[in-house]
Specification:
Strand content: 15-25%
CATH topology: Aspartate Aminotransferase, domain 1
CATH architecture: Alpha-Beta Complex
Distance between the termini: 42 Å
C-alpha cells in the first residue's frame, strides 16, 4: 500500500521547499530500491509525523520526513542491524548521522547515494535476517533457563 498522490502532496504542505525536495528524492529512491514496502504516515511516539516504510508484517524498515531547523531525517534499520554496512559506509555517512540508524540533511542531493544504495537495496532482507537471529537467540536463552 502506498500513499496516494493527494496524501503525499498534503503531507508535503508541512515541509519547507528544501525538505519537500529532499523527501521527494528519498521517497523515490526508496521505492526504486525496495518497491514492495508498505508506506504510511506514522502516528506513534517514536516516528510520529514521518513517512514509514514497513514490511508486510508491519515492521518498520525506513522512515523519513521533515524535522526542525529545515532538515530532513532518514532512518535506516538495515544500517542499524548490519555491522558490515556500518564499517563499510560509516565514514561516508559520518557527517550526516545523528543516531545509530538516522541521518539528517538540509539537501538530500548532498547524500552519498552510492553508500545508501548498497544499504537500501535488499535492506528488508537484512532486517528480516536480523530479526530471525534475534528470535533464535531468545528461543535459545529460554531453553537454557
Amino acid at each position: 500500500m502506498r500513499l496516494t498522490d493527494d496524501q503525499f502532496s498534503e503531507y508535503l504542505l508541512a515541509a519547507d521547499s528544501n525538505q519537500s525536495n529532499s523527501i521527494r528524492i528519498l521517497r523515490s529512491f526508496l521505492l526504486e530500491c525496495e518497491p514492495n514496502l508498505h508506506e504510511s504516515i506514522c502516528t506513534d511516539k517514536w516516528f510520529n509525523g514521518l513517512i514509514v516504510f514497513s514490511m508486510e508484517n508491519g515492521t518498520m524498515v525506513y522512515a523519513l520526513g521533515p524535522r526542525s531547523g529545515g532538515k530532513t531525517t532518514f532512518h535506516m534499520m538495515p544500517y542499524y542491524c548490519n555491522a558490515t554496512m556500518q564499517q563499510r559506509h560509516g565514514e561516508a555517512l559520518k557527517k550526516f548521522m545523528t543516531g545509530k540508524s538516522c541521518l539528517s540533511c538540509k539537501d538530500a542531493s548532498e547524500l552519498p547515494f552510492d553508500a545508501l544504495r548498497e544499504i537500501v537495496t535488499g535492506g528488508t532482507a537484512n532486517v528480516q535476517k536480523a530479526l530471525a537471529a534475534l528470535d533464535e537467540s531468545r528461543k535459545s536463552k529460554k531453553k537454557k533457563s
